Amino acid sequence: MPMVAEKPVRLNIVRGILLVLAGIFALRLAQLQLLQSQWYRERAEAQAIKRAVVYPPRGIIYDRSGLPLVENVPAFSISLTPAEFPVERTPLLAALLNMDSLALRQQVELALRSSRFTPLRLVRDADFQTVAAVEEHLARLPGVSVELETRRVYRGPARLAHVLGYVREIAPQHLEHMGDYYRPGDPVGYTGVEASYEPFLRGEKGYRFLVVNALGQPVAAFRNSRHDIPAHEGFDIYLSIDARLQAVAEQLLQGRRGAIVVIDPQTGEVLSLVSKPDYDLEPLNRRDAGPYYAGLLRDADRPLFNRALQALYPPGSTWKMVLALAALQDSLITEETLIICNGGFAYGGRIFRCHHVHGAVNVVQALRVSCNVFFYQLGLRVGLERLQRFAALLGFGRSTGIDIPGESQGIVPSRKYYDRRYGKRGWSEGGRLVNLGIGQGELSVTPLQMAVYAAALATGVLRQPHVVRALFNKRTGQMQSLTYAEHPLPIRHDVAELVRQGMEEVVHAPGGTASGARVPGVRVCGKTGTAQNPHGNDHAWFIGFAPRQQPRIAFCIMVENAGFGGAVAAPIARRLLEAFFFGALPDSALLHGQPLLSGLQ
User: Fold this and answer.
1) What is the DSSP string of 64-75?
2) Which carries the bigger pLDDT value, residue 583 or residue 310?
3) Which fold has domain 50-238?
């Protein structure tokens, strides 16, 4: 009997265990089907979905009149997702892309270790034959895709290489400094406006979600593109540059080394900025840019170097207005003060020469004939600290704040500078001041600083130079104006007018050093400079503004190793001013590259 009673007990235990297990399975099934079904559905879909980046068109760049300078055209790129690509197919892909197979394999293996699911762009701006060959073999190349993008093209009559800059794939060493937006192979602006306004020009990436097959190839849009994230085009940029005046300036410096900077003195807008030698931007935006760029780096003329805002030169006699302003403003001299020029000035056991015997001259006459003896002595009267102070007021010894990267600050030497360079007892202040009085010695300035200085002399206001006037936000449809700094000079009106009178006489009075800059009907104010160069022939300067009343243009012309400023730089200024005021040079000549240098004296 006990044995008979024990059997139902065991059976009930088994039944209970089975019921518990069935309940657990039922609960789990309910959890999967009712509570977690969406999660598992999304995971299953994710294994068959590929996220493709949509690159927005970069913003268009216009000149001040609305002429498009930089636009976009369609271009194909070929990318590879490392996690989906069979490495053994590397030789086939390399042959189609005309690449070295070993180099391609190393590139893929590196991407597998760093970001295996991030598409690796192999070719940008692929030609039609390459695209057709890759698409023909896509079934044998899992993870490889052909994408439609854009590339930059350049319009208008001027090159503007150092203003616009160029776009290239981001360098690996820059990725960690550029935030989370960029991935390997992404385009980014290098130099010029393309770099300084990159956050505005680039736009915002979008994303498309695609259903892919077992080979990782897209076959359809995921859920009719409902989850796609649209790309947003970059802002358009409107420059202050006058493309036609820029073309004139570029041709006037053709075959020379140097820079031209033209500024609207009433606003600080840069109308033209030229550095020569320059280069062609178009090849830098194509797939074979590497050899071209390497050639630019090797070029002894350094075409990539922006002489307008990076090169440093002694200012020579163009510096004399700084001394004149300082001495007049602080009443060290007056309009009637005379200094005798006998052709030289003896100081510290040596003779500092002048290029003529000028006799007794006042400050206006000294500017007109560029008398060195007058300014040798004025340097001693002004002194080092006062000279530094007035140089700083006029924008020297620091960057101007222009919205193009890479600007140099220049040097206005101080006591600390001389102590550091020569030792506290290794230099004489008087001897240094004599040299500084005529813009020689340890002084160094950029052509951009000199153009800003000329504009400040014209208006009495130091304005921040800039090449961008406004941004157009395509999402809001609004034009956004930009504001820039300006600082009125603490200079008396009578002092400023005396200096302007001297600059006007440089061009228009008998004996002035820049008669070659005269333009009929326009009162041009200017100053020539011939800066000594220990490494070769002297540099030629001419800076100025026009007209004297209500000035509309300020400029700096600097030609390396060209000799006298009055003989070389001033006639270039004349042609530039003729084009600005009278449109004296036909558009057809500019567009077809005809020389504009005929008639220069």
Assistant:
1) TTS-EEEEEEEE
2) 310
3) Penicillin-binding protein 2a (Domain 2) (3.90.1310)
